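FAQ: What does a multi-protein file look like?

Like this. Sequence, then tokens, then the next protein.
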Amino acid sequence: MLTDAECKNATCPPEKKRARLACSGGLYLEISPAGSKRWFWKYRKDGKEARMALGSYPDVGAKDARKARDAAKLNKSDGIDPVQARQVEKLKSSVGSGDTLAATAGDWLARGKPNWSDAHYVRESRNITKDLNPYLGKRAIGDILPIELLAVLQKVEERGELDVAHRVLMTAHGVWCHAVATGRATIDITPSIKKALKPHIR
């Protein structure tokens, strides 16, 4: 198992394209003739050798590199390609500011606003700020159950605003579709709720 001192003093002979120092469990430090040092974890994928970059030394020390390797191993043991899992996480972090309902709804509103009329934007924003966020805004949208959203919509029904309850559901549908598309949720829970609401006559 490599120590930080060994990593610091490691060099690559000038006649080689690169040198590798094995650590443990498939983890190794790759050194270039120019002196750059990068961590890699070697594993098997579909019967072939693959590797995953874990950062550069000294930004990532030996201890942190082993922790990153262990996390990647855990993903692989669960049947998840660790490289793909990291790419998904990067994509998630690039699409919005968080995974709560409030953050997802805010992202959805911001993306939709340029294509909506002012009246439509105001209506959608009001449905979110008045009827969704006060009860579910701080929850991770992927963890919210249909019965929880239904309970929120039933509060609108209790005000006697049956048509508004259906409009809030339509707003929630847009937010959940955005959540699925951006990796914040796995399914849109809103279709299963529509028939549980009281019907309204236009």
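And here is the next protein:
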Amino acid sequence: MSTLALTGATGFVGSAVVEAALGAGHQLRALTRRNQPPREGVEWVRGDLADLPALADLCEGADAMVHVAGLTNTPDPADFEEANVTGTARVVEAMRTAGMKRLVFVSSLAAREPKLSAYGASKARAETVVEASGLDWTIIRPPAVYGPRDSDMLDLFRAAKWGVVPLPPGGATSIIHSDDLARLLVTIAVANPAPIAKKIYEPDDGREGGWSHKELAAAIGRAVGRGSVFAPHLPRTVLDLAAATDRLLRGDRAKLTPDRVGYMAHPNWVARFDRAVPPGIWQPEIAGEEGLKATAEWYRREGWL
């Protein structure tokens, strides 16, 4: 049994990590911005990535850090630097001060193409911080993450329910269920670091070559019970207009931002085979079709769909 420090514990991926860690018998020290109800096996640490004393408390007595917290969307791209780069640097410094060595950092496939978006650029710079840290680090670059409690892909499910799934320009992407990703992060955190330290991995659902955008739209359609969906590819100019419209309608809560359009229009977000996690360490358990269907069912039960 290990004690894991966790940032982003109350978010979409972080909450799945909490379940995976507790299910595997580990203890958690979890950073949270707000008071949380008591939970066996979890010691909540009140604070955020700008709170140095809280980060020091988070590291106290922990065997490894799983750094999930980060900003994925914002109306002001300048915010990415503070949250993703400076925040990661503070986590690294807190670990050094506490004498911790093991760090699992959740990055993004967007870091492969930092010129496409401020988000991807910030994740690439955060990776540089981790790589220069002197810690026993492992970087995980997830592709599109989906599953219960995910609000980012919810709009695609809602659109599919009406038989229309608008797509970015033609391309392909990998996906991974949040439970599979969480299990990977916990496994990597407690594994012998010797063979996996200072490595960058790109996990996925095991589908070779990923999913073309059309294939993924069709699979989401099946998940919501549609026999078929109309899935037109939208040119970049239309996506830019849609981002401007979303900002007008939802303000700072807009999901489709100009920065997101930048990487959505890229044709290849497929996890690379030479960055795959060694199968002796971890393999995905939730196939895409199965996971998408279960996610749609969760959305329905919760009244989201």
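Q: Is there any per-entry metadata?
A: Some entries carry free-text notes. For the entry above: The radius of gyration is 19 Å.
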